[in-house]
Every structure is written in structure tokens, then in C-alpha cells.
Amino acid sequence: xxxxxxxxxxxxxxxxxxxxxxxxxxxxxxxxxxxxxxxxxxxxxxxxxxxxxxxxxxxxxxxxxxxxxxxxxxxxxxxxxxxxxxxxxxxxxxxxxxxxxxxxxxxxxxxxxxxxxxxxxxxxxxxxxxxxxxxxxxxxxxxxxxxxxxxxxxxxxxxxxxxxxxxxxxxxxxxxxxxxxxxxxxxxxxxxxxxxxxxxxxxxxxxxxxxxxxxxxxxxxxxxxxxxxxxxxxxxxxxxxxxxxxxxxxxxxxxxxxxxxxxxxxxxx
Length: 269
Prior knowledge:
This protein is α+β, with helices and mostly antiparallel strands. The protein contains nine helices and nine strands. It has a six-stranded antiparallel sheet with strand order 6-5-4-9-8-7, sandwiched between helices. A hairpin with a 2-residue loop joins strand 4 (118-125) and strand 5 (128-135). Helix 1 (26-37) crosses helix 3, helix 5 (99-115) packs antiparallel against helix 9 (246-266) and helix 6 (157-164) packs across helix 8. The longest helix has 21 residues, at 246-266. InterPro entries: GAF-like_dom_sf (IPR029016), HTH_MetabolicPath_Reg (IPR050707), PcaR_PcaU (IPR012794), Tscrpt_reg_IclR_C (IPR014757), Tscrpt_reg_IclR_N (IPR005471), WH-like_DNA-bd_sf (IPR036388), WH_DNA-bd_sf (IPR036390). Keywords: DNA-binding, Transcription, Transcription regulation. Residues 86-269 form the IclR-ED domain.
């Protein structure tokens, strides 16, 4: 005679190593998440919108905003909250003391002036490209890019150059962790295809991305290496696809980028 199977108990969720760290300050983490909820597209947000973006309870968001306002980092207009210029001081120490950022600005300005196009320097941080330097000749995107801006890595020239030089296990983790969303109809969203593209980028020493982040945008990027030979950052030039051809980017822009990246590498540790 068969006996009924005992119901299976649900598996216990894995413990969050951060949450279990007695030295981890949840209140500080929440405050930083509230700051990061603001963006160029959403400079003014409500408590509900911030809560939705950060998955932080509204009561906690309210306390974070109250503290930021008291310290001069945010302001309120009715139920709308926005950041104040004092926030810039949080990143100034890094930008004014990091050799990469300090050394790059003259080169970015020189590239932008010589080619009359926008030039940027980026690093990979938290699965995104973080812009640590930029010299803009004109606005070529619907989103205004400045130092401190962030963009997806998988569909940008800067990002692909940086991803191409990740150790294999780190790239595997990235592709397993990050959803590849279509930004335009040309965006590569297949992980294996992207992996093949990144292998070609590593071999070629440069990457050209055409209208994958935004329609009408063409961009080319090269690596910036330190004294050890490791890729520390990437340089790029972005331009209107209708105005600057792929051939022009490869024949005229690429040599300038490579020369500047080489000169910049000499100054880095």
C-alpha cells in the first residue's frame, strides 16, 4: 500500500551577505540609493517615485530626503524633491585627485578641438559605463552627457571596449547578471553574439558601435592602459551617423584616439 508523499517544505532563501554584515550601515546605503535615483531625465521626483526606483519603503525615503534637505544636498517644492549643487562636492574629491581624471582633460579637449567632435573617457563601474571625463563639441544625443553620467555597457563603444578586457569569469558573470535590453532595433541583445563581438573587439584593439544606444549615434572607442598593460579606461568619440561615416571614423578618428590613449597611458600608474 502506497503512502502519500509528505509535502516538500519551501527552500529557505539564501542569506544576504551584506545584510548579515554587522558593520554594514543600511541607513547610509539607503541614503546613497536615494541620491542615485535622480537622473538627467528625472531631475525632480516624488517620494513614491523614489520608493519605486529604489525599492526602499516610503517612510525610509522620507527620512532620507529630510536628512539630505537638512544638510543642503536636496530641496523640496511641494511633493517634488530635487538635488542641489552641493551634491557635486561628494564627487569632487575623487575627480580632483584621481590621476586618470586629472591627466585626461587636456587630451579630451585636444581631441575635441582637432576633430570638432565630442570625446569622452569612461570606466566600468557596477555593470555600467561611468563617464569620468568629457569634452563636448556639440550635443549629439537626446540625453545630455557630463562627467558622472552613466550608460549601459553592452550597447556603447566605451562599454564594449571595457567589457572586452574583463577576465573571462567576470564577463560570464556580467552576461548572466545584466539583462540586454533593446535600446534601438539595432541593439545586440543575444549574449552569445555579444560575447563573439567582444572577442573581435579585443583582437582589433578598437570598437565601433552604430546606432545601438540611440538612433543616429555612431561611436568609436580605444582602450587606455596603465603601466602594467591592464586596461584602466576607454576613450571614445561620438558623432551623428548621418554626418560622419564609418570609414571616416576608422581612417581619421581612430589614429587620433590611439595616439592620445598612448600618450595618456604614459602618465598613468
